[in-house]
What does this fold into?
Amino acid sequence: TGSTINAAGGMRATRSEKCRASAARAAMFALLFPLSVQTFSLPALPTHIPSVLRHAQPLLAAAAADEGDESPQMGSAIAVDDPTVLDTQALLQLAARHDLAPYTPAKAPPRGVFCTRSLNMRDIKCIGYDMDYTLIDYKMEVWEERAYHYCKEHLRSKGFPVSGLRFNPELVCRGIIIDKELGNLVKADRFGYVRRAMHGTRRLSHSEIMSVYMRQTIDLRSSRWAFLNTLFSVSEGCLYAQLIDKLDTGELYAKAQPPFDEMKCASYSDLFKAVSKSLFKAHVAGQLKEEVMRESSRFVNMDSGFTQALLDQRAAGKRLALITNSDWVYTETLMQTTYNPFLPDGMVWTDLFDLVVVSACKPEFFTTDRRPVYEIATPDGMMREHFRFEAGKRFAGGNAKLLEKAFNISGGEVLYVGDHIYSDVNMAKRGLSWRTCLIMQELEREVDGLAVGYEAQLEMTRLRSLRSRHAAVLNQLRNEL
It folds into this structure.
């Protein structure tokens, strides 16, 4: 918890670490793991990339210079561990001396911490957690399929022709933006330009994208766009795309049944409202959550590592808080099922937290200080009015300022971990200057793919370099001729 994580995601030696071996080790991590660092254990050293270590010498020299030393000389602690002269076997021996376990690309751990700016855990006094898709690791395809089912059934009750539609988890993902005006699902780059797009379930060609969007940038402040902030939106995006196809072909009107109202589906924007409203009612009605509580093992990944991580953080002196929009009964049921089996005897899940806040109503929790506070007085969720948060108790409602006051902390002393890009990350950062961490299940597949496809990436880089050299030669020949 005391190490500094830099923007590249590597471990950086601090000035108090005078040992040159530590500097070498830090440089190796920065090189080998430019994106990923394990949360509570040092990353393992892969066996498939010894060739890239020839680039480590500048990093080693920089690490030594950061400590006020000259560049490493032969015979020094760094030069002894110089990766530029090591073959694979020697590299594995070096890893063993530093207590690093080797692994193959196929076994590369997909979980890690990806940093966009420095985060020194010494400065963090309180870690707050969301529950859904954060502390509770839902099986996305199972959960979203049921959400899709209940949403579809609500639309069926309104006369929508939804027979034959099936949930497709590969159709959309978190981060997709819906163009409600044109019925398109678009993927934008970091500058807001549309790079890929689908109309309904049909992918648009590059020429079609350029003819529609040209150099237009996406402004999420406009009501035209809807951003899929969370995995809970996957079922919504999937059903909307499928219904667009029916709207375009006329099937939505031709096969509709009473009490279907054509005026409420006269445009792509109206159709989006209908789907969003149905999904909201599917959640509010409670049928989905009742099913999850009855069969939690079917919907939730059970992992003892989650419990151990929280225990480790408490042992490191961090104050822990659970802040969720879910109600008390649902929170108690899932946390009890998921965490209690892995706790030491005599402990229950509430003992992991200094504060539990349910029905938080994020993002308002981060933006207003006028919401009332209620203490959870009984196991079944009966509440009584309260006026402040108190450590060791359970509450409903309230706001972030009360949490800061209860723990005597503020701003950068809080790290909040959640899965919702807007409600959890954006608002906590913008309104309170809290440090934030976004949980993304999707990146696990990406990290695995990068590890397994490393050799292919090297070959692609080599071929691109070769193409550039050939192009340079051709240009020179043209000039001479």
Notes: DSSP finds 18 helices and 18 strands in the chain. The chain has four domains: 4-122, 124-137+303-440, 140-294, 451-480. Confidence is low (pLDDT under 50) at residues 1-86, 101-106. The longest helix spans residues 454-480.
